[in-house]
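Please produce the structure of this protein holding magnesium ion.
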Amino acid sequence: METTGNIISIKGLYKRFPMGKDVFTALHDVNLSFGTGEFAGLIGPSGSGKTTLLNIIGSLDVPTQGEAIVLGRSIGKLSPRESARLRKESLGFIFQSYNLLAVHTVYENVEFPLLLLNLTASERHKMVLDALEWVGLSPKIKSKPPQLSGGECQRVAIARAMVKKPLLVLADEPTANLDAANSHHILQTMEKLNRELKTTFIFATHDEKVISYLKRKIYLLDGRVDNEELTEAI
Amino acid sequence: MIKFLLKGLWRDKSRSRLPIIIVSLGVMLTVWLHAYITGFMGDTIEMNARFSHGHVKVMTRAYAEDMNQLPNDLAITGADSLLETLKTAFPGMEWAPRIQFGGLVDAPDEVGETRAQGPALGLGIDLLSPGSREDERLNLSRSLVRGRMPDQAGEALLSDEFAVKLGVNPGDDVTLIGSTMNGSMAMYNFTVSGTLSFGASIMDRGTLVADLHDVRAALDMHDAAGEILGFSKSGFYEDDDSREMAGSFNAMHEGSRDEFAPLMKSLSQQGNMGQYVDITNTWSQYISLIFIFAMSLVLWNAGLLGGLRRYGEVGIRLAMGEEKGHVYRSMIIESVFIGIAGSVIGTMAGLFLAYLIQKYGINISGMMQGASVMFPSSIRARITPVDFYIGFFPGLLSTVLGTMLSGIGIYKRQTARLFKELEA
Ligand SMILES: Nc1ncnc2c1ncn2[C@@H]1O[C@H](COP(=O)(O)OP(=O)(O)O)[C@@H](O)[C@H]1O
Ligand SMILES: [Mg+2]
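Below is the modeled complex.
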């Protein structure tokens, strides 16, 4: 595996949610690290804690105990401003339900993350066109999400996550709403981007199709890392 | 970024046009209802003003002491010149000299013997001069039951119930028996031109309305008037203005010790009317406040829901790395725009509606059995300066506060929670 040092290092991580008077432990002593360029997945049945872990890595949530260091920053110790900065500069998200902004065009949806960075309009323009080219959506630039198919929407979401060439992309069940053909299409796209741009991908999934593409499989069960498998070393 | 947000605002109808429409409607209702209540509550005051108190009333000091007795022996003499003085001193007013009096109305048989007789309240008003607005003011023409309005000297109107009791029909003659200004007996013949419904039993039981000049002749009150009523040209009673006017008029006669010197009283300075004016104001304020409060709740909730509905979008923007404060501020700014736009549109629409109802009135004669003098057949709104800004309370404040409150959720919730709500 071609990794130049760890970009994520998780040690003794617990996540507990208050449930009425009790607490529910969603993540239990998780220890993991990820290197640059990985194409890895958190695999497990529904409720096993995949999303929770992905959210913490993405600094959308914070650990209850233990530490999660992402790109040298300790999630949970960041101020809201610092965690926003980490997300806008270095992270991309892909969600199960696409989460595109319905009234904005494909172009505008993809451009949005760039508006948060200090870029000129022409820089942004070029980056958006490149990203749409990667996912094969250049002809749909002026369409709006409601006019697109599910597979096209998810490709817009991938372009949006990739447009700023982040170091890390987090994809939570990206194929759950797609048919087999579209699933393979977007997985191939992501695999290609992983190869060409060295972007690290971490998936959360229980979809066999996704699993078949993964180079590293981390099995979660009831909030614990159950088993790990490396399929293929690059 | 701003361009991006504006595009979103403009394209998302449920984020821009719909809230603006809702706010506009709420504001329009508020403005309109406020003007309507002001008009409606003021109507009783206007009715009293038109019928007996005026917005202001000028009498002699002595007459004012015993106003309720209608002491015509203490009436204003030289009424015409006083009228001219009033017209020049207060050009914003219309003046109506009147004589109220008591007497007997006698209906003779063919040979002139008394057939029937009854006590009457008399009202001498300017019915015949071309520019007079007394007919309109007292809603007389529309309250006619039989016959027509007097159109020459010597004609009079009787309340219909009274005419029936006396067995008098339009065209018949009656004799008024009263007392002159000097206390001697007066007799005067009138031809009944028509009969009136007053809608108030004391008046219906026995009232005679005649032209001022006839009454002057009948009661030997040449160039006299018991009272001169003043009406503001706006048609609405303004307590402060009226009091001020009375004060300034009375100041001109302050030095005089003449008990026949003229004295002006505002409507609120006559009898119990002051209390009535206060109660009316208080009530219209309460009703308006309750309504504004209710509207505020509605628009507050609309703002709140509008904000909650957007948690998904907010979640995405946060995930992309936008700062919470920035997202929050942009939502507030949006709601300020929506609040202003809605309030302006709503206020204009509300004022327009209120203006129509102020000008033309809502005809409610269908709900009543015929028109009558004491009950106007239409309800009018009244636009006051308050109406120009009152809608902004529910329109702008509540909308923005509602959004602020819903936006607090952005701070309180973990970003991840916003997504949970979105996925649901
Ligand atoms: N905000 C929360 N509050 C309470 N419980 C939660 C919250 N988020 C997740 N959980 C619980 O944690 C467990 C793991 O959830 P999640 O990470 O979403 O699972 P997965 O993505 O693997 O399906 C589930 O039992 C879920 O109910
Ligand atoms: Mg999940």
